[in-house]
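Subgroup meeting minutes
Present: P.N., E.W., G.H.
Scribe: E.W.

1. P.N. recapped why we're keeping a running log of single-chain structure predictions: easier to compare across weeks, and new members can see raw inputs and outputs side by side.
2. G.H. added today's entry (174 aa).
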Amino acid sequence: MIRTPLLLALVPVLMLGACNRNTAPGNDREAQIDPAPTPAPVMPAAQALSGIATEAIAVETMTDADLAALGGPEGKCLIRLTEVGFPSFVHDGLDRSGVIKLNGKLIPLTAEGAGMFSSDGLRVAIRPVERDFGSDGMREAEMILMLPGASDEHGYRGYEDCAHGAAPLADEAG
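Output recorded in log:
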């Protein structure tokens, strides 16, 4: 009779053994087994978001392959959702252009003004958070995603990493 409770206790442990296939960017993988990641395709917002319900769209993190496809991080600022995470948005620091990853696609955006980027009705606002800085000196920033046809905005708070030679976006307060 002791075997039945022991077997029942082992079932969850055995099931957890199958939970090692998290393919999200940044997770350790076996290089000799797993193929090198390929960059996400670059496409206009209208094409990338076509046929997708706005409620199902969320900001995604870029991989090293995505950054390489964009020319690397040099001369760019990276918007990270955590201090050590991969970026979700990249901009040139000069309010000219940016790129966001949504729906598995890299979407180029053109600057409309200080911290505002858009393409085909998709708008992204990046703004500093009242001069707050993370533990490693990166300035805290808010990223507000406004999807075409959506009634609500999606807000994210993270960090603006401009350690690669670009200037951070101007603080409108001065």
